Amino acid sequence: MSSVIKQSDPSPIIACTISRDVQNFDLLIEDMEAAMGEAWGDLGFAEALAFFNQPEAESLEFVAVAIDEADEDDLVMLGEIIGLANKKGVKVILIAEDVTPAALHQLLRQGADEFVPYPLPEGELQAAIERLQTAPAPVHLAPALTHAALATPTAGDGVIFAVQGLAGGTGATTLAVNLAWELANIEKANPPRVCLLDFSLQFGSVSTYLDLPRRDVVFEMWSDTEALDDDIFRQALVAFEEKLWVLTAPSDVLPLDMISSEDVNKVLALARKHFDYVVIDMPGSLVQWTEAVLHSAQVYFTTLELDMRSAQNALRIKRALQSEDLPVDKLRYCLNRSPKFTDLNGKSRVKRMAESLEIRIEILLPDGGRAVCQSSDHGLPLASSTAKNPLRREIAKLASSLHALGKSDAEAA
Ligand SMILES: Nc1ncnc2c1ncn2[C@@H]1O[C@H](COP(=O)(O)OP(=O)(O)OP(=O)(O)O)[C@@H](O)[C@H]1O
Ligand SMILES: [Mg+2]
User: Fold this and answer.
1) What's the pLDDT tens digit per position in 251-295?
2) How far, in Å, from the CA of 293 to the mean position of ligand 1?
């Protein structure tokens, strides 16, 4: 353990324990030493508050706040420490012994990222540190989404989430497929009904990613929407593992302008009638019926990456929607292959990109490595093939927060 006060210390302090007296948590000392070597220090509560404002704190990546029942009287101060750490971009692992669930809950809500009980189970601290390092910052949904945005998911009133890539290959289909699958599995007892619509009519790859057949009736459905009714719509859908209903792209290439906003609206009305959640994989380009989807969708996710192509297209789409007076506030920017939590340079590039585009990048999707591509090649969602993949975890979190918002809105209504 290093003293954080020592100025001459050559190795920067990456982590700190914060506790009334670290000697009460000797297993924590052992585990910190094993995980961090010399690159950590320890602080008391009052010292911690002062320390965050010092230059030495800039190298901090996380703090482990260790508390026991005697600290429950100091919840306000603990909340301040966690809040300050959050503000400085320092992650917080909460380590607690004999603390009431109410106190734990409060501290987690105040922004602690991970919780590990004390005495520390074997390997748990290390695992929590690894999770912090692979997971990007948590998803923060814009206020618009927390309130009126989500319609109550009842029959006829399904919630629509659209996904469009701002540049090719930025992960729109991966997000759409996995978000739909996570939603379909979000509650065991009473799972919502979910359908996934592949509106990438020409080169839609949802059927490939889930290894589903493309039905001829899909082409017929789009070519004659006059005749479209519940029955035809149902016939056009294929089930993935009896849980997710999918409208694949047609087997033949369809011109994107062959369908109109009315056609799209008709399909969407049927989808909302039969499903609680409707996830749409949109084509990469803006088409005349994009507007129809934008109007119907509660949230319109756009995927981008940290490169010039995405940046320029983000600017274009924003301007295009603004010039047509379209609801640009429904867009949620998802940065795919986002830099890791430890990549400070990458993080500042994200910040600069958001600032220069005047957008909020609210959802950070980590790189999931080759497992992601392999999963789609095998026709499986990430949850079935690589459940612990960091990308899967982040999409699962997104699905939970969307579902929780939908439920709280339903209860408020
Ligand atoms: N976060 C990620 N980590 C690792 N691989 C990823 C990630 N996101 C996407 N991929 C891989 O990148 C490739 C492109 O992803 P995907 O097909 O989802 O993008 P898209 O935006 O739908 O592309 P298109 O423009 O072709 O429609 C796929 O092979 C996918 O497995
Ligand atoms: Mg795609």
Assistant:
1) 887 787 889 999 999 999 999 999 999 999 999 999 999 999 999
2) 22
Higher pLDDT, residue 373 or 102: 373
Locate the ligand 1 atom nearest the alpha carbon of residue 177 and give its number.
18
Number of Cβ within a 10 Å radius of residue 252: 11
Q: What are the residue ranges spanned by the domains of the chain?
A: 15-135, 145-412
Whether pLDDT at 147 is above 60: no
Q: How far apart are CA 208 and CA 210, in angstroms?
A: 5
CATH class of 15-135: alpha beta
Backbone angles phi and psi of 204, in degrees to 5: -50, 135
* Same-fold call for 15-135 versus 145-412: yes
Quickly list DSSP for 170-194: SSHHHHHHHHHHHHHTS-SSSPPPE
Is residue 380's pLDDT more than 90?
yes
Closest CA to 240 of 384, 374, 377: 384
| Averaged confidence pLDDT in the chain | 88
Q: How many CA atoms lie within 13 A of 355 on its CB side?
A: 6
**Tokens 């669930």, located at residue:** 101
Q: What is the DSSP letter of 302?
A: E
Q: What is the CATH class of 145-412?
A: alpha beta
- Note the residue count of the chain: 413
CA distance linking residue 407 with residue 413, whole number of Å: 10
Query: Which of 205, 165, 196 lies closest to 399 in space, CA to CA?
Result: 196
* Nearest C-alpha neighbor of 63 from the set 102, 107, 13, 21: 13
With contact defined as beta carbons under 8 Å apart, do 348 and 68 qualify? no
- Tokens 């867009």 belong to 331
The C-alpha atoms of residue 232 and residue 220 are separated, in whole angstroms, by 9
Report pTM: 0.68
**Mean pLDDT of the 163-170 span:** 97
Q: 171 C-alpha vs ligand 1 centroid, how far in Å? A: 4
Please say whether the beta carbons of 94 and 125 come within 8 A.
no
- 188 burial (CB, 10 Å; 0-12 / 13-18 / 19+) is exposed
Q: Which residues line ligand 1 (CB under 6 A)?
A: 165, 168-174, 205, 284, 303, 336-337, 365, 367-369, 372-373, 376, 391
